[in-house]
Amino acid sequence: MKVIQARIRGLGPTIESKWFDLSPHLNLFHYHDDLGRAAFLRTLATINPPSSCRSAKTFADFPLFIDQQGHTRRIRPEKRTVALAIFNATPDLVKELAAIDQHLYETDRIEVGRRLDCSRWINFVEIASSTRWSEISSDIKHLIDLTEKNTPNRTGPFATLVNSLKASDRIKDGLDYRLAGWLTSLPDTISAGSPQLIETMLDAVRRAEHFHRARSIVERRLPLFIVLKTLPNSTHSTLMTLQAATLLAIAFGRVTCQTEPVLLFNSPERFLPAALHPELADFILRIALFCQCLYGYAAIDIFPEDREIKRYTISELALGQGKSHLSTPADTLQSALR
Length: 338
What we know:
Helices cover 41% and strands 17% of the residues. The protein is an alpha/beta fold. The strands form three sheets. Strands 2-1-6-7-8 form a five-stranded antiparallel β-sheet, with helices on one face. A hairpin with a 2-residue loop joins strand 4 and strand 5. Helix 6 packs antiparallel against helix 8.
């Protein structure tokens, strides 16, 4: 699985970005501010970090209150998604998901978001993860009519529940279990006479449960997002240490999630002499042939001009008319409120 699009909805010093496309190989982000660049990469990495966001306190510097035009607004951490990524679904993953529910044969893209309270959500893009009552109401009512004819007075409480439902109600949050329980307890005369219809209804009311299981599979298959840190040393051993850490991260990602990790680099060229920049660039380019890389840099673009490399400046990514989120405090607050 590769990230095809991403977005950051930061607060305080962390940028709020537009949606941006990502190459499956190398992506460059020109971000001169060290703190802002680190926050950008660290927030994006919360999509699937190697360790808990809570224990790492990734969002500790995110404000819970923001001011706009003299009014204070409270940020609800459980409602605020701060990092979003859209992944492509690989054929082997689709096959595994479709074994759970036939609707998941249509899986093409999977959207993942991390909230400020560190909880995470997963959506299958353009696929409903639960059934609407309007999709099954006529068939359920038909089964109720058949049951009343065969066993009068048996459907009273259930019929009351059914009559209270609206066409737009979703079959989930306990309602799915009640409907499934009723369908599996129908008299033998009804079950024997309408087996295909009952099986179809059971599949429909269990869709939310099926998608819950599918999300668990996706969670296990998401690539790890690993930020590779570089210690200031300015020697060849620094480059060798980064190379070793990168290879170890790739091996760990493959074992843990059955896929290569997404690697995030925070301007390691700053800590190396210019003579080592070509060697660093060559190493990153070779890794990016099979492993998705996001490389933030402060000032010097050490990579060759190549159409295969995605390049962004932070001003291009920031919400607003091309202005950096660092321009004024007011710009930062307005972006956070969008």
